[in-house]
Amino acid sequence: MDWKGPPTRGPGGIKDFEEVLNKIRERFKGRLRPGGSMWLLLLAVLIVAGGYASVYTVAPEETGVIQRFGRYVRVTGPGLHFKLPFGVETVSKVKTGRNFQMEFGYRTVEAGVRSRFTERGFKEESLMLSGDLNVVDLQWTVQYKIGDPKDYLFQVKDVDSAIRDMSESVMRRVVGNRLFDFVLTVGRAEIADRVKVEMQKVLD
């Protein structure tokens, strides 16, 4: 091998390659109608676009829910997947691996080592009556995960509002069956457990 220059080509290498290209051009020359090259270009664009639209990725904390013409078909886990393009199949990604949190009677203003909270404007959520007709001011938090992505998408129209309304209703009922002093002292853990059990029954 000559280290001073590129490897030498066989006799007529480039010339032979050009001859092959010319033969291909001649073979297809005249077979296309006027504007045929444009149709081929459009077809190529459609193929590329279809391939691009058929690929989707589901993140580690997500589950993909596939619909075909609006009807549920299947679910897919994390990773790279394929679907029918051009709107035939659509994918909705549900965060089934994430813990969601709802705050009642307060809101987090700034999260961190020294988190800041505010109760202003949320008294409608926190004020309720105990069993002995005293006004109780409670703040609480609900944490939940999405167990069934299909039900999450199709069974309830507004999941967040449904969970919020349910939590308030259950909390008011549980507190309303207990005495004021019990609610504010030794009964906090029991009330939290009871609300959790009753909410889970409804959500299941």
Topology:
Blueprint: H1 13-28, H2 36-53, E1 55-58, E2 63-68, E3 71-76, E4 79-82, E5 89-94, E6 100-104, E7 107-110, E8 116-118, H3 123-126, E9 127-129, E10 135-137, E11 140-144, H4 149-154, H5 159-176, H6 180-184, H7 188-203
Alpha-beta content class: alpha+beta
Could you say what the CATH topology of the largest domain is called? Tetrahydropterin Synthase, Chain A
Order of helices and strands: HHEEEEEEEEHEEEHHHH
How many helical elements? 7
* Helix percentage range: 40-55%
The count of domains is: 2
Distance between the termini: 75 Å
Regions with little confidence, pLDDT below 50 for 5+ residues: 1-14
- Write down the CATH class of the largest domain: Alpha Beta
| CATH-defined architecture of the largest domain | 2-Layer Sandwich
Q: Radius of gyration from the CA trace?
A: 32 Å
Mean pLDDT: 85
Number of strands: 11
Strand content: 15-25%
**Largest β sheet strand count, sense and barrel closure:** 3 strands, antiparallel
Shape: elongated
CATH superfamily of the largest domain: Band 7 domain
Question: What is the topology, as strand order, of the major beta sheet?
Answer: 3-2-5
